[in-house]
Amino acid sequence: MIELIGVTKLFGGRAAVRDLHLTVPTGAFCALVGTSGCGKSTTLRMINKLLPHDGGQIHIDGQQISQFNEQTLRRRIGYAIQSTGLFPHWTVAANIGLVPNLLGWPKAKVQERTRELMALLGLDEGTFWHKYPSQLSGGQAQRVGVARALAADPDILLMDEPFGALDPITREHLQNEMLRIQSRLRKTVVFVTHDMDEALKLATHVGVMHEGRLVQLASPETLLRQPANGYVESLLGSQDRGLKLAGLKTLAEVVQPDDKWIGTAARGQTVLNLSDSARTALSAMLWSGQNCLPVRNEQGQLVGEVTLDQLCRLSESKA
Amino acid sequence: MSVKAQTNRVLLALPFAALAALWGLDFVSVQPNRIMPGTGQSLVAALGWPGALLLSGGVLAILLNAWRITSPRFWLTLALATLLLALLPLALHWAAQRHVPADQPIARIGLGAGFWALVFLLCLMIIEVLQRLRAGTHWRLLVMAVVLGSLFWFISTGRLDELALLREYQSRSRQFGTALRGHLMLVGGAVGVSLVMGFGLAVQILRRPSWQKPVLGVLSFFQTIPSLALFGLLIAPLSALSAQFPWLQQFGIRGIGWAPAVLALIGYSLLPMVRNTWVALDGVPAGVMEAARGMGMSPLQAFVRVRLPLAVPVVLEGVRITTIQAIGLTAVAALIGAGGFGTFIFQGLGQAANELILLGAIPTILLALLADMIFTALAALTAGYRKEVATS
Fold first, then answer.
1. What is the ipTM of this complex?
2. Looking at the structure, do residues B254 and B156 belong to the same domain, yes or no?
3. Which tens digits make up the pLDDT trace of A87-114?
4. Domain enclosing residue B112, as ranges
5. Among A113, B33, B139, B198, which residue's beta carbon has the most beta carbons within 10 A?
6. Is residue B1 part of a domain?
């Protein structure tokens, strides 16, 4: 658990972060969103003491970070930044093994862990072990960056716009990987981004920052339904809020699986999955011109259908 | 790396000029002894028709090859030019055999304008081809090694003993050894000290950016003082110092000799050393250093394991420039009695003996080339992770 209590950071007399209160429960994925200069990166870098804080307290698992030695603290916290942070003169394997080596793990254990992480991030060992960062694509380099952050199995992961420099397709791919990894590892993550869609997609807690203050901290759904002020609303984009909300819901929350469907064949061309979002379902309806589409489960069996009415009610329900 | 087939005008003009120089200027001169002026010998007179035609044929082949030249034929030109350069000592050996009878141990062969023009133009051709081919460092080193290797083989087997240059060497072989040692020690001392001092200053500038302007300003000022003047200016304070503390003289610290020379050389060496080292250390991407700290490296670990190794290739570039500059400047330091190859140059100037000047000048140039080779190779070696990018 990470707690920031009334934290302030001054840069030359100007407050970059003002009286910030933020609690990230263990296992939560907290995204800090805001325009550049809003203090989100500064906040992140105070947590691992890359920047000292000028006021307030920062606790990790109940202990003040000022009690920790800088290096000891950082080795306990995973840290991932844009791919530029890889060491260009070290191979992929050496980059990933950095923190375990700093911690003095035995060589064999470091190698084993590096292998594990390369497998976890879909990096083929034979291809990438001896490669240098300059030989990697942006997406591959970023995978190495995430693997390096996870190497010593830290409880806490700090990520500073890790996918910021990637093209949209690679970025989405890595976001999905991140969701998959997080569902397995359940780390406490603080993730800085300027991309609201990325935050809504990945986070359990979204913190919106503006001019050094935390304007709102809420779950993605609450944020969409009840933005605290006009600034948050403008970040969410008022026009397609409905779609973003629909993007948070899966059809599993809408459709009651019914055994009577099992065994029947789908009539139309378009069949949805239970894991698809309501947004995907809406899009499919617009595209196919039908207001009712069949849904199947992970095994590919039909389990029900979803109607346009149901989807509309979904967005209204708790308004 | 394919080069479009079009005529290369440089490779057309250079061999043309080389042919004109070969046939229009004296190739060598023959002197009966050290004092008598030499008589110039044309290419045919020097080498005889077979030799003259062989040499001209090689140059002509390069000229013809320039017509609608393609990538593989650039390699042919490179091979031809390197071969000609490497075989020039053989041409001199032939000329000596024709013109210096074995029973005249003081007769000698001087190098003529035609010979020097050919050497110079062949070097230009090689540079042009290497640039067109975008050939890597290792090709440059290979060409140098072939040419220098051939030269040293001809010298060490005594086949060039009749050259005036080597006659001068034979009568001064012991002084030559002393001069070489003196030159190397002056350069090595100055570069070594300035590397240590320069590194310290560069690290300080990196830590305190406000130091950058004053430090580089003072060092730039040193560079503007003419070397001759600086050597001279140091005589007075060092004389005074050694007069005040006579025990300093035991270590050779006097107004003249190695002490003022090394001081002046360090003064000149600091600017390129500090500037390159600072640029190298400062040029390490901020993201990389941030990651190093963020991962939990101590400041010392981050410096030694990340910043320094990434900076080494550029630091070595600074050492290379500094060393070459110091090798040249040391030749001037002979004026204040510091020794080195400059001794021969100034003796030769005094006696109007061209070959003696060359005996000082050529080893100085060779030393500079050798230093260039060594540091270029080292820099390429330490930047190995970058080279892999080019080949992938």
1. 0.81
2. no
3. 999 999 999 999 999 999 999 999 999 9
4. 9-167
5. B198
6. no
